[in-house]
Design goal:
The chain is α+β, with helices and mostly antiparallel strands. It is built from two helices and nine strands, in the order E-H-E-E-E-E-H-E-E-E-E.
Length: 111
């Protein structure tokens, strides 16, 4: 059995977070949290964080941190956070192995 990391932040996502953080004069720390709601039961929330909390799990890529609190981690363990650009726009995307189903917009899921 291979040891899979709890979280992965892709190079594309790290570059985007770094650019946003620089413009906003904030640390390059992206917080991913999971909240109830959305069209499939749970929804992802992204935001820049001022720091890392004691119960956070941290993934780091190119000096950029992705942080997830311990409660949200149970729902996104093993997830890969990417940044994608398409005709529909640009967005952070979560590839979550725990999601049993998701919605068309990709921002909510069920387990």
């Amino acid at each position: 059995m291979t040891d899979q990391p709890d979280l992965v932040l892709t190079d594309a996502a790290a570059a985007r977070v770094a650019a946003i953080a620089e413009r906003q004069h904030k640390p390059a720390i992206l917080r991913l949290s999971v909240e109830g709601g959305g069209c499939s039961g749970f929804q992802y929330r992204f935001g820049l964080a001022d720091g890392v909390e004691t119960d956070d799990r941290v993934a780091e890529t190119a000096g950029v941190k992705l942080v997830v609190d311990s409660i949200s981690l149970d729902l996104v363990r093993g997830a890969r956070v990417d940044f994608v650009e398409s005709l529909g726009g640009t967005a952070f995307r979560v590839d979550n192995p725990n999601a049993a189903s998701g919605c068309g917009c990709g921002s909510s899921f069920s387990v």
